[in-house]
Amino acid sequence: MEPEPQTTQTNLHILPQSSYIDSLRFLPPISAFSRHIAVASFNSDTSIPSLTLHSLTTTPTLTPITSFTPSSRITSLKTTQSLIAASTVTGSVHILFPNLINGTFESEVNVPDNVLHSGRVSGLDVLESGGECVSVGEDGRVNVISVGEDGRVDYRKVFDGKGLVSFTAVKWASQMEFVTGGFGNCVQWWDVRRAGGPVSQFKGNWAQGATSGIIHSIDIHPSRKHTCLAGGSYGTVFAWDLRRPQQPIVLSGIDNGETAACISESDVWEVHYDTFMSASDHAKLSSKGVLPAMICSEDGILAVLKQGEEPTELLAENCAINCFDIDPHNPSDVICGLEWESIALLTRA
């Protein structure tokens, strides 16, 4: 019998929406009393996608202040200090420059459908230090996109799998390196200075048929760029360390001889390092190889995973939790997109 997950004290608000939530992200605050959230949504009745900038109050309420209509449904959404980037199911990429004081999108740069990818862009990430984006697709292409100060867009193909491989997630590790994930629980490390393919690769070799799994999400901690966090099918969550590239550190969901609690047996849709830690957590870090991680899943679980400990359940819903984001400036706050057209706002004590 599996042990029950631990729980933590939270303050939860559920805000119903009029559309399906595909993705959401915090934006950098412009003051202590003003926060904004970018929300990618899809209206199933009209088949119209939308990217909306919301103001988040302490009440809490979400107030839409401006909106943008992308070319098609959004597949990936990223935000930095200066821009919002979104990719779509038809292969386009939209880069928006918000003015949070005026509550507007000052300008936008678009890469049309089927220029970067043939069909769906499955993953997108943006460098925090600049305007460079990396995109991956189910067509097996990997591209780097650069946006100049004049609004000009340059892009170059890093790799073209010509449909023989497929990528589902991507994350920058440095200005020259990024990590991709795909089918078969495979993870690849790339260096843009070295052409031809990834410089290192981990191929999943899990028991119980899990080699058919898919990596849905990747994260890399700014202070430990040699280690990436991956989440995918069958509740899979593991860390991949370049120093030991064929020895994944299993946090949840895989039975291959590793000892790890299984918080979910369904797809893990998103995974992030969790920067909200108590004093006791900080004291344990020196003895832990993997920093705490937060995941959301198809069976409605939002939880924190810590290496060698039982998972801490933050939220258990009767529907899928498709996406979430942790406020980087106030990590006690988390936003989630629920399958039942709602946004959950959660604050940890």
TrEMBL record:
Its main location: nucleus. It is found in: Nucleus. GO terms for cellular component: nuclear pore outer ring. Signal peptide: none annotated. It comes from the Eukaryota. Keywords: Nucleus, Repeat, WD repeat. InterPro entries: WD40/YVTN_repeat-like_dom_sf, WD40_repeat_dom_sf, WD40_rpt. The keyword Hydrolase does not apply. This is Nuclear pore complex protein NUP43. It comes from Ambrosia artemisiifolia. The lineage of its organism: Eukaryota, Viridiplantae, Streptophyta, Embryophyta, Tracheophyta.
